[in-house]
C-alpha cells in the first residue's frame, strides 16, 4: 500500500478575502488565488480561507472548496445546521457552478462536453488520472467565449466551464483531456506550452454560484467576474 506524503508548502498569500454578501447564516466570498481553502496538517500551511474567516466569524465552516490556485466564489456556512443544509444541496447537485478559464491554444469547437472518469493514484499524488476502470464518473461542459492571442504570440481560448460532477481537479484534468490545458496549471500541462512558463497563477476562476438560501428559500445567484 502506497503512503501519500504531501510535501507542498504554500507560499504566503498577501491578498485579502473579499466578502461579497453576508447575513447571520452564511457568507459569500471571493477567494484569492494562492490561498488554501482549508489549513493543511503541516503548520506552515496554516493560512487558509477557513483560518482567516473563523477569526471574525467563530463557528463558520466550509461547505465546499476551491483549489489553491483557483480564485472566485465560495459560500461559507456560519453554523452547523446551515452547513448541513448547504452540503445536502451540493450532494444532490442542486448547486450550479460556472468557471471562467483561459486555455492554452485555440479550441476548435465552440462548445462541447468532456465525459471522462477520474481516479486517484497515490503513486502520483497530488495528480489525478483518467481511468475507465477505477475512476468515478466525471462530466464537464465548456463554451468558448473568445479566441485571443497573448502578447500577439500565444493562442488562448477564454471559456466558460460547467462541471456536472464535482471530482477533485475535474476541470483541470478535463481541459488537459480536451487537448487544451488551463493556462498556469502546474499539474496538467498548463505551463508546458511555449510562452506559458511565466504565467503568474492558475487561470481558473469560479465566476457563478447559484443555490437556495437554506432558511429563506430565496435563489441566490452570485456572480463575480474573473480578474484575468
UniProtKB/TrEMBL annotation:
<dbReference type="InterPro" id="IPR050188">
    <property type="entry name" value="RluA_PseudoU_synthase"/>
</dbReference>
<dbReference type="GO" id="GO:0016853">
    <property type="term" value="F:isomerase activity"/>
</dbReference>
<feature type="domain" description="Pseudouridine synthase RsuA/RluA-like">
    <location>
        <begin position="25"/>
        <end position="177"/>
    </location>
</feature>
<dbReference type="InterPro" id="IPR006224">
    <property type="entry name" value="PsdUridine_synth_RluA-like_CS"/>
</dbReference>
<comment type="similarity">
    <text>Belongs to the pseudouridine synthase RluA family.</text>
</comment>
<dbReference type="InterPro" id="IPR020103">
    <property type="entry name" value="PsdUridine_synth_cat_dom_sf"/>
</dbReference>
<keyword id="KW-0413">Isomerase</keyword>
<dbReference type="Pfam" id="PF00849">
    <property type="entry name" value="PseudoU_synth_2"/>
</dbReference>
<dbReference type="InterPro" id="IPR006145">
    <property type="entry name" value="PsdUridine_synth_RsuA/RluA"/>
</dbReference>
<protein>
    <submittedName>
        <fullName>RluA family pseudouridine synthase</fullName>
        <ecNumber>5.4.99.-</ecNumber>
    </submittedName>
</protein>
Amino acid at each position: 500500500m502506497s503512503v501519500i506524503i504531501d510535501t507542498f508548502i504554500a507560499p504566503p498569500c498577501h491578498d485579502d478575502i473579499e466578502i461579497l454578501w453576508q447575513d447571520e447564516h452564511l457568507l459569500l466570498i471571493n477567494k484569492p488565488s494562492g490561498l488554501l481553502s482549508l489549513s493543511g496538517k503541516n503548520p506552515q500551511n496554516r493560512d487558509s480561507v477557513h483560518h482567516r474567516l473563523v477569526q471574525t466569524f467563530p463557528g463558520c465552516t466550509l461547505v465546499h472548496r476551491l483549489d489553491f490556485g483557483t480564485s472566485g466564489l465560495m459560500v461559507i456556512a456560519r453554523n452547523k445546521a446551515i452547513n448541513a443544509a448547504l452540503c445536502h444541496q451540493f450532494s444532490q447537485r442542486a448547486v450550479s457552478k460556472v468557471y471562467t478559464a483561459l486555455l492554452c491554444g485555440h479550441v476548435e469547437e465552440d462548445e462541447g462536453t468532456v465525459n471522462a472518469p477520474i481516479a486517484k493514484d497515490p503513486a502520483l499524488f497530488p495528480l489525478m488520472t483518467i481511468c475507465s476502470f477505477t475512476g468515478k464518473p466525471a462530466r464537464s461542459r465548456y463554451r468558448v467565449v473568445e479566441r485571443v492571442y497573448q502578447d500577439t504570440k500565444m493562442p488562448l481560448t477564454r471559456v466558460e466551464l460547467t462541471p456536472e460532477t464535482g471530482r477533485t481537479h475535474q476541470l483541470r484534468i478535463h481541459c488537459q483531456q480536451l487537448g487544451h490545458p488551463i493556462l498556469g496549471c502546474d499539474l496538467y500541462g498548463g505551463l508546458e506550452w511555449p510562452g506559458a512558463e511565466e504565467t503568474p497563477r492558475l487561470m481558473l476562476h469560479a465566476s457563478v454560484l447559484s443555490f437556495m438560501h437554506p432558511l429563506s428559500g430565496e435563489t441566490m445567484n452570485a456572480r463575480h467576474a474573473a480578474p484575468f
